[in-house]
Amino acid sequence: MRLTVSQQEAPRHGDMCTALSINHSGVMLSGGDDHAVWRWTAAGEPQSKIIEGESCVTLVSWLPGAGRKKGDARDAFLVAFANGQLHFVNAADGRVEKRIEAHQGAVTGLAWSPDGGTMATAGEDGMLKVWSQSGVQRSTLVTSTKSIHCLVWGADSPDYGGTCVLYTHGPDVAVKPLNPAVKKQLQWRAHNGTVLCASWSPMSNLIATGGEDGTYRVWDAYGRALFTSAASEYPVTSVRFSPDGEMFAVGSFMSLRICDKSGWTQCRESVPNAGSVMALNWTPDSTQVAMGTASGHLMLAQLVDRVFHWRNFRCSLADRNKLVVEDMTTKNTEVLEHRDTIIKVSIGFSHLIVATTTQCTVYAVERWSQPVQFDLRDVVVSIQQCERCFFIADCTLGIQVYSYEGRQTAVIKIGASIRPELLTNNLVSLSHDTCAIRDPADSKRIIFFDAINGRPIKDLQVAHHLDVLELALSQYGPQQDRKLAFVDRNRDLYLVAIHSRLPTQKLATMVSSAAWNDSTETLTAIADCRLVTWYYPSAVFVDRDLLVHTKHVRGDEDSGDDLGRNDHIIDFFGTRASVRRGSDGALLTFGVSPYPSLLFAALAKSDWVGAIRLCRFIRDNTLWGILAAVAVKQNELHTAEVAYAALEDVDKLRYMSRVREIPTSEGRQAELALFQRRVDEAESILLQAGYTYRAIDMHIGLHAWERAIKLAVERRAHIDTVLHARQKHLESIGRSTETLHAYRQAAQSAGKVDAAAVAEKVKQEHDKEKERGKPYVPPKGV
């Protein structure tokens, strides 16, 4: 990535330009120590001097929502001065509509809530005040003996009772809840000198700070350090996250740096004869950065040469509206020009998606000359692709699902008020049949929609005990086999089989990133600074002991493969996982074993003979573990026996052999369901097939005594069998008195139990099963 910087020859401000604001249309305001506020076009051309105040301008801000509609009454702005005043100004004619004596001394901080209904200010007097949108003071949130240097609005968090603000004083950063019922305040030492600037992204929920010590740092929302830059010769005078939360800009003496959200530098440009960069702001589409400098200039920097990869294709943004796509295998190059500025690019699944300010264009990599185009209604927040479709998310319509032919298949509505931070790729995941979203109203809940028609899937949701930070849907297999992996606030990784009633399973801890493979049910994650790959994570629902065989930890044998907690998995296609290193931005490629994909291909065709041959040829316990799990799941007993024998798991081998001897297919299915800890499913299979005795006997074997007697009473069968088994159990544990009321009541009704009669009834049940059942037949060729 690089920047192309443009500026006016002569500065419009007679002194330092210290304040910048950009509305939704891209129109800019700048204020400076010359007491003036200038208006600029979206192209960076000066329009007019709107006002000239009585003191130095410290901050300027459009009212929230300004620029969305032409002639909107909200096209007004707020100016803060060094004399402590706030002015509400009409942008059309420069008329000051209201003056407020906000602070004693300069106003140093000004922040708006996301909905625009609340404003917060901070000043040199050490006070932090909360105001209504019209300028009526609501409360004084902080009273300090130290001057507050900057103020930003924070992301919503249940730990802070909802909304909070971040402010800095001296070398410290503090997070203060606005909810008066929450008394706690988070504070930490951020820099070795005074903290001069800060920015908090609601999209990534990360905090960036810059200080007099010449460093910039990245923190999570709880004050934990994620990245610290090398100290430079000059102080960091400004930082600002982009609206999409993927980057932030850092201003210093005659330099501008663009950094990834994790902290590493994407590009750095010198700004000669500009002095320090005193103010920064981004255009709404996150493609340009505006700078206010100590020389009085307003400069505009365009981001170009952003690079995107997929398999053998390399796509680079050569100009604001031009993409260059290169096939690294054939060396063929395609130049794709667009009418408007390119905002978002996504490449994968043999398609390139390009979103500009007004249109979306879909290219197939086999035919670049025949793209599909359709119009957009709002700025695109995120794009995500899967095998058969993709979605585009914006704040007007929400999530819109399209086929690669450009046909809209579904619109997923997630609420009346859509905020962009709810539509990031971390919180929304798409497969060709399902869309998973973290509930906008409850960050601990995940809801699901049908990706084909956009309707909510009834009675299907995941409720967790902590906030969900990241989620991903599996891409392989039919809808009933769809899995969801999610990471919570403790950085624990969980797996959910969303279309079954199975309990959520924990896979790993200290997870920084996770991704599914595009063509197999393989999951990879960065856990405890290692790349961990689960070739068949669904084994945890079948036999958790198999999980260790189907998991590979890269780094156990290669000590040089340590990753960092700030590293992130970019994609996982085929047998390659791409990881972006958080320390320096290097793109690392890790290979995974190709043999599991061959095994999955054989299993997809029910080729059990071929699967066994492959496992015997490769001689890898990973393949045997996958084969055992799939065989048990699909009731293929002979293959399960072979796999467990190869794994030298004698107990489970004997169990599978015993299951094979059960005469009925329903009995075998129920026994395998019980093996997978699905007791209710096993009972349902037996009762539907009419095997009441086997269902009762199953609960007796599990010592589920209350369920056994309840089932016997409801079915009016084998009450004496249950009582006899219970009596023998009490004798074995040395207890003579019955403690369960249901058994005392049943014993009074049934009278004395005849052991010989019970044995005869059990024998008759076994004989009936043998008459009705069919013996197990292994697959042909095994």
User: In percent, how much strand structure appears in the residues?
Assistant: 35-45%
Helix fraction, binned, reads: 10-25%
Q: Strands of the largest sheet, in order across it?
A: 1-28-27-26
Q: So what's the CATH class of the domain at 2-304? A: Mainly Beta
CATH topology annotation of the domain at 2-304: Methylamine Dehydrogenase, Chain H
Average pLDDT taken over every residue? 91
Backbone shape: elongated
Q: Termini distance?
A: 57 Å
Low-confidence stretches: none
Could you state the CATH homologous superfamily of the domain at 2-304? YVTN repeat-like/Quinoprotein amine dehydrogenase
Q: What structural class results from the helix and strand content?
A: alpha+beta
CATH architecture term of the domain at 2-304: 7 Propeller
Q: In angstroms, what is the radius of gyration?
A: 32 Å
Number of helices: 13
* Number of DSSP strand runs: 55
Main pleated-sheet profile: 4 strands, antiparallel
Domain IFT80 second beta-propeller: 305-595
Protein name: Guanine nucleotide-binding protein subunit beta-like protein
Domain IFT80/172/WDR35 TPR: 623-771
GO biological process, one term: cilium assembly
